[in-house]
Each structure stands twice: as structure tokens, then as C-alpha cells.
């Protein structure tokens, strides 16, 4: 995963301010007291399962829905009472919403018509937007003659041509096949860095969010669980739900032995005594806590290799995935077997089921989290 | 696909050259439309052929002279009375269909966009007038528009007019008013259907790109519902040209239409060939008008972009 460099923008300035926003439908709260600040020029993702309120939040920023309570400001302008057509935001819809009665050029130029630009200027901007999404030359193509990927690009160009302060993307890649989706992730990220517009992406695909975003807000059941960089979210999830949603995670229960300042010492059955950094929002809940370690942070030790930190167990399942092998290893004393992901360069795909293995781990990779 | 081809190969081999007739898709399609097709052939195409044949013949009292002649068409096209009647019929049907569509559109729009869970109920309510006979509905317009009718007595009661307006009944206007009401549901339904098919996200997209409610309606909703508007226009326009009952009942002397003249030729005047020539002329003119209407609307929709 590429590390995104810090933007050379100098000062960080908030572009979208979401303050105590709640959206209720009768007794049901689609969004519950959401607080969020999205910075200028940032690629920000709202990540969560369906029904977590991420699309509701996006639609409220766009102006298609209004908060029941709370406020939204874009570029220091309060958005209350401002309809969608007068907001400095543009949206790429999940279904792309390409106007079927217009061709590519007319679709992209749709929003410019109203601005009464000079004919040449309008043309130039449409051409520029088409070039940005690599659709040069397809301007006369009818909307119904486009492939899924092309429709997506037209939707993107149509929004970008308006030069919005914020571009909102509602699951824009979910309708594409895997290969095209991965290609578009890279392109979207590159495009965002080229134009420098604030992007807010709604997605339920954790890899998409991790690969593209500067920061991610993970949402569950109408609440924002964690807001952090992809690396932070993946490596130091605040709770089990976030950890689980972001990929595989082995959970280990531990007795809290000592809690002081920023560190936490626990006794676990499988991993023995572990000292770990205390999560910022850690709330002690009785004498036990949950530790998590990602499957790829466990490494199989070969023949004469040893490690200061290792556990021994028996392989009970092996699943082959091409470049990696997934092992399920039972450790005496642990309630649940550990999942281990190994690359296949050293022959992990040949480890027989039933054999004993030693697993090395980095104690730094064992992170404490709320339940 | 390969698997399917392989699977069907042995089947085809076991019964060479005997593709079951009723299993082919086109045969099934034909079987479905055959009854309707025969019905239409016997009761629509054959009578039209008979009419076309008659239009080239001559009638001498009770006998038909079957020598080919264009005399009937000469009369139909040059006699001022028939030309006027045809023009009036076209005018009435054009005004009626445009007025019906203009009045039906807001109804259809309301049901489609604001009908919520009650769309079915609204559509049901629209069909209620059809529970009564068409004749009764036309007669009730006579009651409303008549010299001592509801409208006149109402207006007089309110002191807006001093004496009854005679222009309300027995002219082209009364025919148009009655027809617009009679055909409303036939215009509302196709427009409603095409509005239902408009993807609401497209309207959101238009708003997102800066369009207010009126602009997004004109640039997205209206062009996308054009098919419904065109069919509504044709559904009303084509039958009203040849309407016979309405002008007979509320048209009076000034509301007579071409169908009344045709009826007279087949009836009292006993000149079937002339009636047939008038019928054929009307059919051709209606076809031309309908085609022109479709072309004009398509062109307008293209310009609106």
C-alpha cells in the first residue's frame, strides 16, 4: 500500500464541518450525533456496512436531505436552507445518473449551460474535463452506447467540469468489475491529487477506502466509530467492530495486570504477558481487555529459526489463494484458533494440515481495543 | 455457453431435422397473436378494403356501378362543404388533443411524483367517469353548457352575466370541451407511465448540476416523458377526428364534423361511394397529421437540449 505524502498545501483548513448532525426517520436514527471535520484538498472516505448512515451523510452534504438537528458548513458557509443546486458541491451518483437523452458532450456540459459562458470557453472546459477522465474523442457518443467504466468517467467529468469545492462520490466503483475497479482506484486518486479538490467518497469496500483515502471515517449504525488515516485505522482500530470490518483480525482476551499512563500490561493465555500502548479512548471494562493481531503479522518460523516472541500450535486448516496461503492454527490455551496469512515464497502452501508450527509475532502488532 | 451447446448436441442428433414447431420462439409468438390477428383481419382489414373499393365506384340509386372512377375523390376534395368539414374536424381534433395533453400532464405529474402510496387510488379515481356510458357523459355536458344549463344559471345567479351565453352550446367549442373531458384519462395514463419511468436520480443530478425545479423539469423530466406525451397526443387526436356522437349531440349546426357527413352519405343520401371516398380521404389526412405531430415533437425535443 503506498504511503501518501503530506500535501504541500501548508496550512490545513477545514472544508466541511459537520456538527452534531442527527437524521431521524420517526424513531429510527439514520445518523446519530455525527461530528466530523474534512480538510481542504483531502481525499476523505466514509466507510461502513450498508445502513450505517454514510450515504445519508453524503446526501446531506449535497443538499438532497437535511439534518433533523445539527449543522453542516462547507467552506465556512452554513448549508442550512441552501438547496442542492446552489451548493458548492457536485456528486458522482452510484448509478452515475447519465442523462440518457443527451450525448457525452451534452452530459458533461449540462451544468455549464446555465453559467452562460462564451461558446468557446464552454467547449474548452468540456474538452478539458473529458481529457481528465481519458474520454477525449468520445464527445459525440450517445449516453446509451457507453460501457460501465465509460459511464463512470462521464459522471466524473460532468461533476469535475463544475469545479466544485467538494466532490461527493457515492460508491462510484461498486458497479465495476474487480480489475476495472482497481484501475479506477488508482486513477481517481491520481485525479484528486491533480485537481486538488476535496473528495468525499462513500464506500463499503475497506480496500477501496484504504487504497485511496487520506483519512477514513468508519461508521456503524449511524455513529462514527473512528476517524483516522488508513494506516492508523488498519493497525490501531478503536474497537472490535472496526478491526473486524477492516479485514481479518485475531482476538485474544487478556487480564489487565497494570494500567498506567499510556501503557497497558496484560496477561494472556496464548501470548503470555504483553505490554502494549493504551488506545486513546480506552475505557476499562472490568479486569479484562481485548487484544488483536492481524493474520499477516504472524509469521511461520522455519526449521532452525527462533524468535523471542513465539507461540506453538497445530495447523488445522490450510487455504490456498495463489500468492498467499491462509493457515488456521490451534494454540493450546486459546479459545479460538489463530488465522495466519503467509506469502507463498517460502513454501507455506506445502505445510501439511496436522503438523506443528511455531509462529513469531511482533509484540508491537498486538493492539488493545475496546470491545 | 459452451456447456449448453454441448448439452444440446446429443438431443439434436437423436431427432434429426425435427425441430418441434411449437417450441421455437417465433412460433410461440405467432401462436399468441394469431387469434387477434385473424380478428383484426376479418373485422378491420377486410372492411377497409371494401371501403377503399367502393370509393372508386359509382352508385345509381340501389345498384353499384363497378367501373373505376376518381369522381368521388374529386367531389370529396373540391366540394367546399366537405373541405370545410374536414378542416373543422382536423382543427377540433388538434385543439382537443393539445388541450387534453396540456391539462392531463399536471395530473399525471402529480400522481407520479406526489402520489406516494396512493398512486393506485388516484388512477382508480380517474377511471370513475368511465363507469357511466359515454352518451350519458356527453348529455351531462349538454346540461352544464345549455341555455338554461348549470353554467349559465350559475353565472347569472352570481350576477356575472345578465342573460344566458348562447356561445356555450352547439358549436365547435362545446365539442372541444366535451371531448377534452371525455379523453382526459386516455392522456393521463400514458403520460403517467412515462413519468414513472423517469429515473429520479436524473432529476437529482440535474439539481446537483445547478438546475432549479423549473429548469430540471424542462431539461430532464419533460424530454424524458416525451414518449408519453406523443402517445397521449396521438391517442386523443386520431379517434377525435372521426368522432360522430359528440358533434351530433352537442355540436349543433356549427359543430358538425366530417364523420357526420360520412354517416349521411351511407345513410340518408345513399351514396356509399362518396362516403367511402370521404372516409379514405380522412384516414389519409389523419395519418399525415399524426406523422407530422410526431416529427414536430421530436424536433422540438431535440432543440430543447
UniProtKB/TrEMBL annotation, chain B:
Q: Kindly give the SUPFAM superfamilies that the UniProt entry links to this protein.
A: MetI-like
Annotated localization: Cell membrane
The molecule here is called ABC transporter permease
Q: Matching Gene3D superfamilies, A to Z? A: MetI-like (1.10.3720.10)
Ordered alphabetically, the record's keywords are: Cell membrane, Membrane, Transmembrane, Transmembrane helix, Transport
| Topology versus the membrane | Multi-pass membrane protein
Tell me the classification of the organism that encodes this protein: Bacteria, Pseudomonadati, Pseudomonadota, Alphaproteobacteria, Hyphomicrobiales
The UniProt entry's sequence similarity note says:
Belongs to the binding-protein-dependent transport system permease family. CysTW subfamily.
PROSITE patterns for the chain? ABC_TM1
InterPro entries according to UniProt: MetI-like (IPR000515), MetI-like_sf (IPR035906)
- Domain named ABC transmembrane type-1 is located at 86-295
Source species of the chain: Ollibium composti
Segments spanning the bilayer are: 37-57, 90-108, 120-136, 143-161, 173-195, 216-238, 276-297
This protein's major location comes to membrane
Amino acid at each position: 500500500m503506498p504511503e501518501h505524502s503530506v500535501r504541500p498545501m501548508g496550512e490545513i483548513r477545514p472544508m466541511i464541518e459537520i456538527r452534531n448532525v442527527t437524521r431521524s426517520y420517526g424513531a429510527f436514527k439514520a445518523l446519530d450525533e455525527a461530528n466530523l471535520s474534512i480538510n481542504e484538498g483531502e481525499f476523505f472516505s466514509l466507510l461502513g456496512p450498508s445502513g450505517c448512515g454514510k450515504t445519508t451523510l453524503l446526501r446531506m452534504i449535497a443538499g438532497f436531505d437535511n439534518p433533523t438537528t445539527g449543522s453542516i458548513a462547507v467552506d465556512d458557509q452554513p448549508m442550512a436552507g441552501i438547496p442542492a443546486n446552489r451548493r458548492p458541491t457536485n456528486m458522482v451518483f452510484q448509478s452515475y445518473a447519465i442523462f440518457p437523452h443527451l450525448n457525452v458532450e451534452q452530459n458533461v456540459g449540462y451544468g455549464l449551460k446555465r453559467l452562460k459562458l462564451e461558446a468557446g470557453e464552454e467547449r474548452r472546459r468540456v474538452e478539458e474535463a473529458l481529457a481528465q477522465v481519458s474520454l477525449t474523442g468520445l464527445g459525440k457518443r450517445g449516453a446509451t452506447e457507453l460501457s460501465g467504466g465509460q459511464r463512470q468517467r462521464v459522471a466524473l467529468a460532468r461533476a469535475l467540469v463544475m469545479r466544485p469545492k467538494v466532490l461527493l462520490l457515492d460508491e462510484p466503483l461498486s458497479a465495476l468489475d474487480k480489475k476495472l475497479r482497481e484501475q479506477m482506484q488508482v486513477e481517481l486518486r491520481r485525479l484528486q491529487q491533480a485537481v486538488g479538490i476535496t473528495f468525499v467518497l462513500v464506500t463499503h469496500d475497506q480496500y477501496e477506502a484504504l487504497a485511496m483515502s487520506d483519512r477514513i471515517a468508519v461508521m456503524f449504525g449511524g455513529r462514527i466509530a473512528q476517524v483516522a488515516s488508513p494506516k492508523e485505522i488498519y493497525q490501531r482500530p478503536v474497537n472490535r467492530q472496526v478491526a473486524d470490518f477492516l479485514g481479518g483480525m485475531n482476538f485474544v482476551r487478556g487480564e489487565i495486570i497494570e494500567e498506567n499512563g499510556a501503557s497497558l500490561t496484560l496477561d494472556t493465555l496464548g501470548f503470555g504477558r504483553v505490554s502494549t500502548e493504551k488506545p486513546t479512548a480506552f475505557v476499562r471494562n472490568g479486569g479484562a481487555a481485548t487484544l488483536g493481531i492481524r493474520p499477516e503479522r504472524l509469521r511461520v518460523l522455519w526449521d532452525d529459526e527462533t524468535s523471542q516472541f513465539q507461540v506453538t500450535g497445530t495447523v488445522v486448516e490450510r487455504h490456498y489463494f495463489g500468492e498467499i496461503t491462509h493457515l488456521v492454527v490451534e494454540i493450546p490455551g486459546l479459545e479460538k484458533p489463530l488465522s495466519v496469512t503467509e506469502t507463498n515464497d517460502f513454501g507455506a502452501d506445502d505445510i501439511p494440515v496436522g503438523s506443528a508450527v511455531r509462529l513469531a509475532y511482533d509484540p508491537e502488532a498486538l493492539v488493545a481495543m475496546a470491545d | 455457453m459452451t456447456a449448453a451447446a454441448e448439452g444440446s448436441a446429443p438431443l439434436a442428433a437423436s431427432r434429426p431435422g425435427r425441430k418441434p414447431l411449437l417450441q421455437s420462439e417465433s412460433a410461440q409468438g405467432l401462436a399468441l397473436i394469431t387469434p387477434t390477428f385473424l380478428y383484426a383481419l376479418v373485422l378491420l382489414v377486410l372492411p377497409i378494403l371494401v371501403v377503399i373499393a367502393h370509393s372508386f365506384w359509382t352508385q345509381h340509386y340501389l345498384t353499384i356501378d363497378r367501373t373505376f372512377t376518381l369522381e368521388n375523390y374529386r367531389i370529396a376534395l373540391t366540394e367546399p362543404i366537405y373541405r370545410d368539414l374536414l378542416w373543422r374536424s382536423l382543427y377540433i381534433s388538434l385543439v382537443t388533443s393539445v388541450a387534453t395533453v396540456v391539462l392531463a400532464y399536471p395530473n399525471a405529474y402529480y400522481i407520479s411524483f406526489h402520489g406516494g402510496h396512493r398512486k393506485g387510488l388516484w388512477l382508480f379515481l380517474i377511471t370513475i367517469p368511465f363507469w357511466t356510458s359515454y352518451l350519458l357523459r356527453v348529455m351531462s355536458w349538454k346540461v352544464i353548457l345549455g341555455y338554461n344549463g348549470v353554467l349559465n344559471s350559475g353565472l347569472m345567479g352570481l350576477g356575472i352575466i345578465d342573460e344566458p351565453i348562447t356561445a356555450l352550446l352547439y358549436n365547435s367549442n362545446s365539442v372541444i370541451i366535451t371531448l377534452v373531458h371525455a379523453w382526459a384519462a386516455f392522456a393521463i395514463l400514458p403520460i403517467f407511465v412515462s413519468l414513472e419511468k423517469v429515473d429520479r436520480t436524473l432529476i437529482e443530478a440535474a439539481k446537483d448540476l445547478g438546475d432549479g425545479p423549473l429548469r430540471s423539469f424542462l431539461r430532464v423530466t419533460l424530454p424524458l416523458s416525451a414518449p408519453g406525451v406523443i402517445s397521449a397526443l396521438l391517442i386523443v387526436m386520431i379517434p377525435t377526428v372521426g368522432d360522430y356522437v359528440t358533434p351530433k349531440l352537442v355540436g349543433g349546426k356549427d359543430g358538425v364534423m366530417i364523420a357526420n357527413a360520412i354517416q349521411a352519405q351511407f345513410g340518408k343520401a345513399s351514396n356509399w361511394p362518396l362516403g367511402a371516398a370521404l372516409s379514405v380521404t380522412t384516414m389519409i389526412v389523419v395519418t399525415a397529421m399524426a406523422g407530422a405531430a410526431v416529427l414536430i415533437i421530436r424536433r422540438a425535443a431535440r432543440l430543447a437540449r
